[in-house]
Structures are given as structure tokens and as C-alpha cells.
Amino acid sequence: MRNTWILATAILLAVAPAALADSIQLFVNSSVLATFSSPNDNFWGTYYTGHPYTDFPSLGNDVGVFADFSGVSLFVPTGNAVTSATINVILPAASIQGTGVNFALTSFPAPNPGISIAPTFNGTGFTNVSASLSSFSVPLPSPVVSGNEVSTGDLALLFLLDGSIHDTVATPGVNWYGYIGGSGQVLIPYTVELDVTYTPVPEPSTVALLGTGILGLAGAARRWLYL
Fold first, then answer.
1. Which residues pair with 58 in a beta bridge?
2. What is the mean pLDDT of the chain?
3. What pTM did the predictor assign?
4. 179: how many CB neighbours lie within 10 A of its CB?
5. Does residue 123 sit in helix, strand or coil?
6. Can you tell me the distance from the alpha carbon of 82 to that of 21, in angstroms, rounded to the nearest whole number?
């Protein structure tokens, strides 16, 4: 009898169609506008018209920007079940350019008495900001699966910014002691990907048919073995 079931199972596996897994991806491009003010940087120096003033003020570390990405979803074809689902976030590989401005905030007495004239900046410039996911968003949460719908749920991304504001001196400052400030904006583009794998769900009639086939093959194999 044991040999009968072994043979029947082998025949069934040879003729039964395999349930092949398939996958689907959803790529959604978005962006978030980050507005920031730099902490004050104290600086001393002589500034000449036309000379670039670089690397100050800095944005500081861990300037946080939240991006809401909830409720984005996709649907797998009817008659299939989700077997796995993941969320991925794709960020720019290089630094992101934006707009910013430097300004002289206030002066304070120099260590040695002398002329102290605050510089003024041209009012425009650019920021050089790098964006990355914070520890609050890593690892990313799993998607929400409800039937054949896969959603990002209440996903909120937190980006960290660092960098500096570059500008050009409009009027010179001579031996100036004081605080330099800055403000700016940068648009951070990013892509969120939903990656879903699914397989067909056998209908009850198909399961019953396969069960009947097993019994039929078992009987046929038994008769064949006793011939």
C-alpha cells in the first residue's frame, strides 16, 4: 500500500500545475521642502568685495525634516494572496542644492581695539545640503496588508540635514568681530517603493478536483502494481 501512495504522489506532482509566485512594484516620486535657520557662527576676519565667503554659517547637525507618506497603496490581482511586502526609500546620491542667504547679525569688541566694520552679503547664494534617513525611520516599517491591498500605512519619513550656506560679500568688512547667521531652503526629492510578491490562491473546486485526482491515481497505481 505504501508503494501505491508513493507512486500516486509522484504522478500527481508531475501533472499538477505549480503555483508560480509573481511580483509587482509601485514607485512614487515625491519631495519635501526644508526651511532652516543656521545657528550663529562667531567669526573674525577681513572681507573684501567679490571674495567668496564659504563654509559659514553651518546648518549644524541633525536638522530634522518630516515627510508624510501615509495612505499610498497598490492592489495585487484578484485571486492572489500576498506572500511578502517591503517598503524602500531611494534618496539622492549627491548633495542637494537650494537657495540661502548669509547675514551679519551683530559685532562685539575686538580683542585689540581697532576698526571693525561688519560685512554685508549680496542677499543670494546657495546651500550645499546632504539628506539622509534618521534612526527614527530605520528600519522602515512593514507595509499594511489587507486582502489584496498593500499600503504604506501611517509612514512618516524623517530626514536629517547638514551642510553650509555659501554667499558672496557685497560690501567689505574690515577686522570684523561678530556673529554670522544664515537661512535657506532646499527641496529634497525622494522615491518610495512598494515591493510585493504574491501567489495564486486555489479555488475550492480546484482543491476538490486535485483530491479526487489523488484518490483516482492511487487506485490506478494499486491496480498497476498488482498486475
1. 164
2. 77
3. 0.72
4. 17
5. strand
6. 10
